[in-house]
Amino acid sequence: MNLDERYAFVAEWYDPNASLLRRYDLLYYPVDGSVEMHDVKNHRIFLKRTVYDSVRLQDLFIGNKVTIFSRQLHLIDYGDQYTARQLCNRKEKTLALLKPDAIPHAGEIIDMINKAGFKISKLKMMLLSRKEATDFYVDHLSKPFYNELIQFITISPVIAMEILGDDAINEWKKLIGPANPGMARTDFPTSIRARFGTDSIRNTVHGPDSFASAAKELELFFPSSGSGGPVNTAKFTNCTCCIIKPHAINDGLLGKILIAIRDAGFEISAMQMYNMDRVNVEEFYEVYKGVVAEFNEMVTEMYSGPCVALEIQQNDATKTFREFCGPADPEIARHLRPGTLRALFGKSKIQNAVHCTDLPEDGLLELRRKEGRRNWCLITWKFCIGLQLLILFLRAEARSVQYFFKILEN
């Protein structure tokens, strides 16, 4: 590796205090993973060259957002011709569509996508109307199985994703395998269709075969206008809200978390990826402000990258899913509830894999590891705080689902 190699980008950051977009030159040095920032307007160094492990070369492409020391930067252009020549063709995007028969295996398929090196940049569970289905399958209009295909794709939800990667269109076609799952099992036994497909219609996944097809199909599922497209599948009844946090998405844990939720007997009735800004996050977390000491760190984590919102359904979903998430501190969870989501996938109290309405007795669980009379005042205080939080969280529960699947949809 060239020790002097660096890549330059033009990045924008929205300053909520001044209500201004501030522009920076962002430099990335792959030799040691360090970054440097220059304030374009004031012609001065904003951040001296600093090693920053959270930013990787594969994250640096036009249109992506990266967070550096709590600032979410939007990469809007290349900073020099060298960077443009080296990186402009490095990332390609395509549509990854999970058909109705793939929904029970969504976790496994998404895990295969992550392991293959793709980056999921958009994701939404949706229900296709007949018109949307006919627009999607217009090239199959003359095929004898056309009507069966339309009926199948509209019968229940699908999951659409925009995925990015080197030569993504061809590599995704290789990963999914031949359209006939029987042939896939013979010739490409590790492909998605070989593992999960049934026949040429119920073959679990779809992928465009050309750049033009990918652009057309992505526009159908994720309109460039930012609105419209197939509707989401949120039901807003007998449900609770789960947010898979940015660090878990970045670490490739989305598929594994979905598998764990399914295996625990919960139904995921809606799913969508969001990139939130600080204002959105503070509004969503407002019930914690002034109550939870880690409020600012929680906010910073939630807007540090894409998160995935889930609508979870089960009998008494609010209570049972909170219990399945476990204590907020993963270390405590691993001691007391080792099978919970935070025990399995959490890293710290801030990066604890998932957000849900937390249990009011989390403070008491933490104190079970301690003994002695000196802790009783703290136990009593945390219990009172827990009761206050319970009242706030119950009010916020229905709002959480509606926030992600109604408000941000607009």
From TrEMBL:
<dbReference type="InterPro" id="IPR011410">
    <property type="entry name" value="NDPK7"/>
</dbReference>
<dbReference type="InterPro" id="IPR006602">
    <property type="entry name" value="DM10_dom"/>
</dbReference>
<keyword id="KW-0547">Nucleotide-binding</keyword>
<protein>
    <recommendedName>
        <fullName>Nucleoside diphosphate kinase homolog 7</fullName>
    </recommendedName>
</protein>
<dbReference type="Pfam" id="PF00334">
    <property type="entry name" value="NDK"/>
</dbReference>
<keyword id="KW-0282">Flagellum</keyword>
<comment type="similarity">
    <text>Belongs to the NDK family.</text>
</comment>
<dbReference type="GO" id="GO:0005634">
    <property type="term" value="C:nucleus"/>
</dbReference>
<keyword id="KW-0418">Kinase</keyword>
<dbReference type="GO" id="GO:0006228">
    <property type="term" value="P:UTP biosynthetic process"/>
</dbReference>
<dbReference type="InterPro" id="IPR001564">
    <property type="entry name" value="Nucleoside_diP_kinase"/>
</dbReference>
<keyword id="KW-0969">Cilium</keyword>
<dbReference type="InterPro" id="IPR036850">
    <property type="entry name" value="NDK-like_dom_sf"/>
</dbReference>
<dbReference type="GO" id="GO:0006241">
    <property type="term" value="P:CTP biosynthetic process"/>
</dbReference>
<dbReference type="GO" id="GO:0016787">
    <property type="term" value="F:hydrolase activity"/>
</dbReference>
<dbReference type="GO" id="GO:0006183">
    <property type="term" value="P:GTP biosynthetic process"/>
</dbReference>
<feature type="domain" description="DM10">
    <location>
        <begin position="3"/>
        <end position="91"/>
    </location>
</feature>
<dbReference type="Pfam" id="PF25364">
    <property type="entry name" value="PH_NDK7_N"/>
</dbReference>
<comment type="subunit">
    <text>Component of sperm flagellar doublet microtubules. Component of the gamma-tubulin ring complex.</text>
</comment>
<comment type="function">
    <text>Possesses an intrinsic kinase activity. Displays 3'-5' exonuclease activity with a preference for single-stranded DNA. Does not seem to have nucleoside diphosphate kinase activity. Functional component of the gamma-tubulin ring complex, implicated in the regulation of the microtubule-nucleating activity of the gamma-tubulin ring complex in centrosomes, in a kinase activity-dependent manner. Part of the dynein-decorated doublet microtubules (DMTs) in cilia axoneme, which is required for motile cilia beating.</text>
</comment>
<dbReference type="InterPro" id="IPR037993">
    <property type="entry name" value="NDPk7B"/>
</dbReference>
<dbReference type="GO" id="GO:0005819">
    <property type="term" value="C:spindle"/>
</dbReference>
<keyword id="KW-0539">Nucleus</keyword>
<dbReference type="GO" id="GO:0005813">
    <property type="term" value="C:centrosome"/>
</dbReference>
<keyword id="KW-0206">Cytoskeleton</keyword>
<keyword id="KW-0808">Transferase</keyword>
<keyword id="KW-0963">Cytoplasm</keyword>
<keyword id="KW-0067">ATP-binding</keyword>
<dbReference type="GO" id="GO:0005524">
    <property type="term" value="F:ATP binding"/>
</dbReference>
<dbReference type="GO" id="GO:0004550">
    <property type="term" value="F:nucleoside diphosphate kinase activity"/>
</dbReference>
<dbReference type="GO" id="GO:0005879">
    <property type="term" value="C:axonemal microtubule"/>
</dbReference>
<keyword id="KW-0966">Cell projection</keyword>
<dbReference type="InterPro" id="IPR057579">
    <property type="entry name" value="DM10_NDK7"/>
</dbReference>
<feature type="active site" description="Pros-phosphohistidine intermediate">
    <location>
        <position position="206"/>
    </location>
</feature>
<dbReference type="InterPro" id="IPR034907">
    <property type="entry name" value="NDK-like_dom"/>
</dbReference>
<keyword id="KW-0378">Hydrolase</keyword>
